[in-house]
Write a structure and sequence with these properties.
Layout lengths: L6 H10 L1 E5 L4 H4 L5 H4 L4 H5 L11 H12 L3 E7 L25 H11 L3 E7 L6 H4 L5 H20 L6 E5 L10 H8 L1 H11 L4 E2 L9 E2 L12 E7 L18 H13 L3 E6 L9 H21 L24 E4 L2 E6 L7 E3 L6 E6 L8 E3 L6 E3 L12 E7 L18
Parallel strand pairs: 1-2, 1-8, 2-3, 3-4, 4-5, 6-7, 7-8
Antiparallel strand pairs: 9-10, 10-15, 11-14, 12-15, 13-14
Helix pairs in contact: 5-6, 5-12, 8-10, 11-12
The structure holds ligand FHN.
The site of ligand FHN has 6 residues, from loops.
Length: 424
């Protein structure tokens, strides 16, 4: 049994548009990002000593959930085990876990309970690769270690799929080979991913699985870019700070602004995808202020403009996009629901806004956040829509959304003679 999710099973995910990713592990204690063990070549035994210092604050999972809710996210994805191999769950197949060291707690359980209680959909991340296994790096030289690694992955994924109730998203990572030489079918073979995913679907019917095991499955997960998918829906994941730092990075100077983050979310919606925005909790598991503030700002904007984002789809008008690309118009992109287009204006044009190549008559134009209506004129011959009487200054500093109600689904007209507009 290896059937992908049906559109019906994907519905909640497609409606959500915003999720929160949490990267938390032993690396968080070091404050230099989640790749520290490997990039500093810290020997496994030495690194393992961190496990006894792992003492997350009692309410840390609740804090992550609160931050996600403040942002208006509808689901979360937690790193149950990153490449360092330290499990945030109790595992029969490893001693290197938060349940046996430090605070001796099953953080995955705390997270799942807190997320569910808040009504969020629950996602788990699992890294197939584990740097502690020489067989990952040199499978032919250390075949037993390689076999043990693959067995560990199958066993632990089974544990995660059976021990925590309903899991709605499984995000694999680390499916690539250490020499970066193989292609995706080879990764799949390396991990026996078809078999693994068949088991997951058997245990968790309706679960949404990403494509990083080497098998395509339900969603693509581009990193640090917003992209639409040609075959599958995309979930674009991104850091709030620098792009190399998913785990807590103490000195992380390039925080994205709330405006950038809101625009990224809109862009993800514009291409019919989701935005999975990452936080890297501090050593004690708390969410750092820089991230909290930004999540709150997204949530504030979303409260006023949710209708343009959730359950929206690609719009054919200029500023919407073709699958796989993002195209922009001068002011900002459109999203759509039925006969309604949402013009998400980043660069406020002043008292008058003009949209071109509008092939569908317009009925009404208003500001989504307040419902205030504006006069407009749609010219059937030129296909220009001119909206007037707008405030001189942007009503929303992040992005102001004009709700444009059309008589039918909005279509973009073609311009057969590209110079025709010059004569009016
Ligand atoms: O190597 C990881 C990285 O640390 C981080 O977890 C991201 C998140 O999607 N994934 C990997 C790189 O593709």
């Amino acid at each position: 049994m290896n059937e992908k999710c049906s559109p019906e099973q994907m519905r909640w995910f497609n409606e959500a548009r915003l999720g929160i990713y949490v990267h938390y592990g032993l690396y968080s204690l070091l404050g230099r990002g989640e790749w520290t063990m490997y990039s500093e070549r810290i020997p496994a035994k030495e690194y393992a000593q961190l496990a006894d210092q792992f003492r997350p604050a009692p309410r840390c999972a609740e804090e992550w959930v609160e931050a996600a809710c403040a942002a208006g996210a509808k689901y979360m994805v937690l790193t149950t085990r990153h490449h360092e191999g330290f499990c945030l769950f109790d595992s029969k197949y490893s001693d290197f876990t938060s349940a046996r060291h430090g605070a001796k707690r099953d953080i995955v359980r705390e997270y799942v309970d807190a997320a569910r209680k808040a009504g969020l959909h629950v996602g788990l991340y699992y890294s197939l690769l584990d740097w502690r296994f020489p067989g990952y790096f040199e499978p032919e030289k250390y075949p037993d270690s390689y076999q043990a690694l693959v067995k560990q992955a199958h066993d632990q994924v089974r544990e995660l799929m059976t021990g925590y109730g309903r899991i709605e998203v499984l995000e694999y990572d680390g499916g690539w080979d250490a020499r970066l030489a193989g292609k995706r079918p080879e990764w799949s073979k390396f991990w026996r991913a078809r078999e693994l995913n068949a088991m997951v679907r058997e245990l968790q019917p309706g679960i949404i699985i990403n494509d990083r095991s080497g098998e395509d499955e339900d969603i693509e997960t581009p990193e640090q870019v917003i992209r639409g998918g040609k075959q599958r829906m995309t979930e674009s994941c991104m850091c709030i700070g620098d792009s190399c730092a998913w785990g807590y990075t103490r000195f992380n100077p390039n925080w994205k602004t709330p405006v950038q983050l809101v625009q990224n979310l809109i862009q993800a919606a514009q291409v019919g995808g989701n935005y999975l925005l990452n936080i890297g909790p501090m050593p004690n598991g708390s969410v750092r202020a820089e991230e909290q503030e930004r999540l709150q700002a997204i949530g504030n904007w979303l409260k006023r403009n949710e209708e343009a984002i959730r359950n929206s789809r690609r719009c054919a008008l200029i500023g919407a996009s073709e699958p796989g690309t993002v195209d922009l118009n001068l002011q900002g992109p459109w999203t759509q629901k039925g006969n309604v287009g949402y013009w998400c204006i980043y660069r406020w044009p002043g008292r008058q806004a003009t949209a071109i190549r509008i092939g569908t008559p317009v009925r009404r134009v208003s500001l989504l956040a307040t419902g205030e209506e504006f006069p407009f004129h749609w010219d059937e011959r030129t296909k220009r829509l001119v909206i007037s009487g707008l405030p001189a200054l942007p009503p929303d500093p992040c992005c102001s959304v004009l709700k444009v109600e059309f008589e039918a689904e909005p279509i973009r007209t073609e311009e057969e003679d590209l110079s025709a507009w010059l004569n009016g």
